[in-house]
Write a structure and sequence with these properties.
The structure holds 2 protein chains of 2 kinds. Chain A is mainly beta. Chain A is built from no helices and 11 strands. In chain B, strands 2, 4, 5, 9, 10 and 11 form a 6-stranded mixed sheet that branches. A 5-stranded antiparallel sheet of chain B has the order 1-3-8-7-6, with no helix packed on it. Chain B is globular. Classes of the chains: A mainly beta, B mainly beta. The interface between A and B is medium-sized, with 30 and 26 residues.
Chain lengths: 113, 118
Amino acid sequence: GAGVSQSPRYKVAKRGQDVALRCDPISGHVSLFWYQQALGQGPEFLTYFQNEAQLDKSGLPSDRFFAERPEGSVSTLKIQRTQQEDSAVYLCASSNTGGNEQFFGPGTRLTVL
Amino acid sequence: AQSVTQLGSHVSVSEGALVLLRCNYSSSVPPYLFWYVQYPNQGLQLLLKYTSAATLVKGINGFEAEFKKSETSFHLTKPSAHMSDAAEYFCAVRPYSAGGTSYGKLTFGQGTILTVHP
């Protein structure tokens, strides 16, 4: 595709449910990032992949958050036992090797009731 | 450690007036600096970036920013605002990587919402 795509665009979950958010990066992009953007805030880093390797997961807020990129392309961010504080927009970005520019997807807006 | 401070969560200008959005950074190593724009229900779009070349950086849609090391600033300007500039703007920083690695975790500011009045 022409850009980074994310699905679903909107997700409503009841507290305690598990959710899975998908990111399709730009074809050939080695690096993939996940960010969390709370209402009225700037995005905050969650985790980083280089190909299939998760090199940094220091931003994941708890062990309920898990991300994977098994074949080095599509990535999934999973949140187990969702809580209200997980409500946010989850942004995915990709970049090529050595590139300074990250290309962002439209995000998934998660609302936990 | 890096951080970004955007002064003013809301800026309002008249169409045709100067746009000035302020960004100050803190970084222990020479940084790369970015400005992104976000329209409602859309992802972030890169406006411009500073990567240790020219200190005055020109971006898309008539925006530019000047890197001032002495002031640790990277303010975004546009000489004449257009209605279509109304959006939220984010300043971001990442550390300079001399090794050419692709790892570029961004640290964002809180954002500035720009309103343009007719």
